[in-house]
Amino acid sequence: MTSANLTSRHSAALESAGGVEGRSLWQDSWRRLRRNRAAATSLVILGFIAIISVVGPYAVPWDYDEIDWDHIEALPPTFELGHYLGTDYIGRDLLARTLVGGRVSLTVGILATSVALLIGVSVGAVAGFLGGRVDQILMRFVDLMYSVPLTFFVIILMVLFGRNFILMFLAIGCVEWLTMSRIVRGQTLSLRNKEFIEAARASGGTTAGIIWRHIVPNVLGVVIVYVTLTIPQVILLESFLSFLGLGVQEPLTSWGMLINEGAAEMEITPRTLLVPAVFMTVTLFCFNFLGDGIRDALDPKDR
Amino acid sequence: MTSTLPSQPVLEIKNLDVRFTTPEGEVQAVSDLSLSVGKGECLGIVGESGSGKSQTFMTALGLMAENGVARGEVMFNGVNLLKAGERKLTSIRGNKIAMIFQDPMTSLTPHMRIGRQLTEVLARHRGLDASAARDSAIAMLRRVQISEPERRFVMYPHELSGGLRQRVMIAMALLCGPEVIVADEPTTALDVTVQAQILDLIREVKETLHTAVVLITHDLGVVAGLADRVAVMYAGRIVEQGSVRDIFYHPNHPYTCGLLACTPYLDQAKTGKLTTIPGQPPDLQNLPPGCAFSPRCRESQECCRTERPVLSLATHAGSKACFLSGPR
Questions:
Q1: CA–CA separation, B24 vs B155, rounded Å?
Q2: What interface predicted TM-score (ipTM) does this complex get?
Q3: pLDDT tens for each residue of A232-259
Q4: What is the DSSP secondary structure assignment for residue B285, as one 8-state letter?
Q5: What is the DSSP string of B8-50?
Q6: Using an 8 Å Cβ cutoff, are A178 and A142 in contact?
Q7: CB of A98 within 8 A of CB of A258?
Q8: Number of Cβ pairs closer than 8 Å across A and B?
Q9: Which of residues 114-153 of A touch B (CB under 8 A)?
Q10: Of all helices (H) and strands (E), which one includes residue B238?
């Protein structure tokens, strides 16, 4: 038949073009992201900060909670004693503390955002897809939660359940999911009437299956952008809580706590403020650049 | 082509009424519609946009919008689909009754490989494991004349042309060996050369697998080439029904004639103007009391505006809903 002829010719053309393996939208976006210099650099820096936060504390000569009993004072940077960035006011190694602080801040940032992601995407997708009464109830609940001052909510949780590391990211996650759910719901509403959803229903897809396999992957692009913006937000919220004394427990520390301590002594030893502040600022910058980059990479108009 | 009625209907719609409640009022999308399609038969449903042709079958599959209410019966294998539960419907959709949609460009989930979309259907309805599903999906891709199916299998929808995607959609519809295929304007979004290939494919499928095909379209050319019987719909009702030959050569209803007259021909005199049916389709929120077509009908009489004609015997073996008698 002519039709068979046509398709075989078509495929022959494809063959010579060399397009053998399918390339997904994700792979395309990934390629574009790598070509975006700011975003790629940010990604590398973030990776670097993450790695030194995880590995670094083992590599530096001092422990983060170890006091240099011979020098209980804010030492300037010295190589003989192994305090590469000096010590804080009671003689603890600043570099070790900053690295451990980074570990805590990044962990809180990522875990709390994951909690927000999980709740936000499920609620948003279910509300948007099912619509009707379910949508009303869920979204009014979100509205209600919005009206509760977030920090107040976190503080109450902290007071009720004590200062618990796990509780902290749960609490932050539980307030950060609200915006996520609204974004996902909005996206779902626009996807719900797309033909491929109708086609999936017509081919016998169940509601749960359609939400999970056809809606969620399609909203992921927007969600990822929002995630990269939520992580720094969470890190900031954590530093704010630490600043209020509601964060992690001493001697464990986070960037927010280090900045808090450093701020108290910035006139005498600005170094104790600057080191964690630089780490945190660079991280937040990178997350924002990365978020921008991902958004550009996923933008279909760019195609 | 002698029998105009199917010997044994696979899907039978009886007195179907579909209404939608909207903030502006109630919309009567489908009224008192009855039709059936038999094994190995192709029924063409023709009508303008908004005449309820798609809505009828979306309702039959339980895919109606939430604000819709359906009454009547849709019998499939002894089950009334309008009364069936969601679970039952899910097991029928894509399995016993499959749909092919108008726009293949948007009917495939963009982020999923073709293969996964196909095997998902098989896993759901047939419970096949991954490799068996893969084999049968690839066999089906080959069946719909997609060359190098193994390679297409791992591709994403945006890497395929419109015609190929529609073939994939057809393959997906055929995967579970359905008894009825509802093709909702399967060729509208395709260019003419591809249209012909797709229609060939549907015909070939119908003839070899004896699947009942419902072809929803506004393209009379498509119907003429493929359908055995035709139902012409206007404002949610069937206005004329009969074998394809009768409808094309001896139309009884003025609307059918109007539609046929609108078809442009290459050898038509170049007057510069295409024939149209003057006026607009009626507002489905407040249908006229008489024949819905009467405001646009050139031959309408007094009774047409006050009384609604029921489907009655036409001069051909089919039926028509018009007070006028005889072929137009």
A1: 45
A2: 0.72
A3: 888 888 878 777 777 777 778 888 888 8
A4: T
A5: SEEEEEEEEEEEEEETTEEEEEEEEEEEEEETT-EEEEE--TT
A6: yes
A7: yes
A8: 107
A9: 131-132
A10: strand B237-243
